[in-house]
Amino acid sequence: MKAYEDVRRDMKINKGIAVAVAALSIVGLAACGNSNAASGTTDTKADKGLDVIGNTITYDPNHLVNDGKPIQLEYWSWGSKGTDPVYKMIESYTKTYPNVTIKTVNVSWDDYWTKLPLALKGKNGPAVFNIHNSYDALIRPYAADYDIDTKSLESDYSTASVHEDENGKVKYIDSVINTGNIYYNKTLWSEAGLTDADIPTTWDEFIQVAQKLTKTDGSKMTQAGFNFNGDAYSAIYQGLNYQKGELLFSEDGKKANYNNDVTKENMQFLKDLYDKYKVGSVDFGNDYTQSFGNGQSAMIYAWGHMEGTLKEKYPDIDYGVFATPTFSEDTPFAYDRYNGESTPGVNKNQSKEQQAVAQDFIKYLLANDDYIREAVSELNSFPAKTSLQNDKDILSKPVMAAIQPRVDRLIWPGPAPSTVESSGTTAFQNVFQNGMSIDKALKEAQGQMDTDMKSSDFTSMESKYAYFDEHK
């Protein structure tokens, strides 16, 4: 699924030509397939002979949906079968309820966030739709509250509470979550004489390992022990700051908290990795992913999406994963930021009949372990469903095993504005590539963040973190 490691994108909705073109295409997308037409299969068998599923949220499949009358809904997504777990669940749901047809409509990511809001404004938009939380403000006005008890959601899903509004309602929650880890090349690891016993848990240990994995030919680096060139900084700096108890946003949650002593310390720490400890170089390529995939860099910091990238582009790389080190053996304020893959939304502007079926489908998803297992598999992300967080099959995956011991100490700042990453990346480039002082780079980045967020309605979710009171 697109951007599931929380790569932020600006909401570039052109209010001229793009909207006009999108509006015309909406007619073709939404005018068909959302009818309550009487044609189709009628279901008269309420007792399906199936077991009730779920833990606190339960779903009894032994009932008629839409009184057994034929009904057709649409599900919109930028994903497809194999990248969006909802597709597979639609198949099982409609097999159980033959009177229900859920037509899947694929819209490209770049078009999705223009076309979807336009469709949801009317009466013929999709009854169910895929959500990415970075576009929360765009879809929230059109999304219905889930018709599921909030306490039940909190009981079954460890991150559900952060999505509750001021009325204690949710419009979506996380199905799975992800965060950053260290990926390492097992072949280079072995060649350096390292074993599993050498996997570092602190940054001091990490430096020693990275130095052993670094190779040079005279003054020229031929193999980097650790590479974060490209856009890795925009994610890793947040985790480093959280490890030291520094929030990403101000106490009121309205302003970015970038220009501070901790960010400065961590920028210097990363610079020292290259300049003092010589485990990498700003001149060693500009894409950490490609360098790792080509076997030129031994370790990188990346989120769960990296597994899919390596499988697709670099299938011959033998790699492992371990949890990102910390500055000491003590439990930090938070190990890192996390982000979640969202459960689908329900269109509040659709008919009562379609909304009722959509709500039934949502409950079917959330009670069903198969949905979460499919999400884990397709998105290489950790289950937000508590009953699956110790599942042996799931924990056999390296990324899941790395995340599991620290899942309670991961923090979600909310659907942060893209400037938090893009301006951070600019600061990194200014320091590492342009020779700017850290103080000046941080000051300029903070100024840009302040400007970009001036008209934003964003409020940080950091205060909902269980250990929020431990921050600096």
Automatic annotation (TrEMBL):
PROSITE patterns: PROKAR_LIPOPROTEIN (PS51257)
InterPro entries, per the entry: SBP
One of the protein's GO biological processes: maltose transport
Keywords for this protein: Signal, Transport
Domain of life according to the entry: Bacteria
Residues of the signal peptide: 1-37
Pfam families attached to this UniProt entry: SBP_bac_1
Database matches in SUPFAM superfamilies: Periplasmic binding protein-like II
Molecular function GO terms recorded: maltose binding
Gene Ontology CC entries for this record: ATP-binding cassette (ABC) transporter complex, substrate-binding subunit-containing
Entry similarity comment: Belongs to the bacterial solute-binding protein 1 family.
Designated name of the protein: Extracellular solute-binding protein
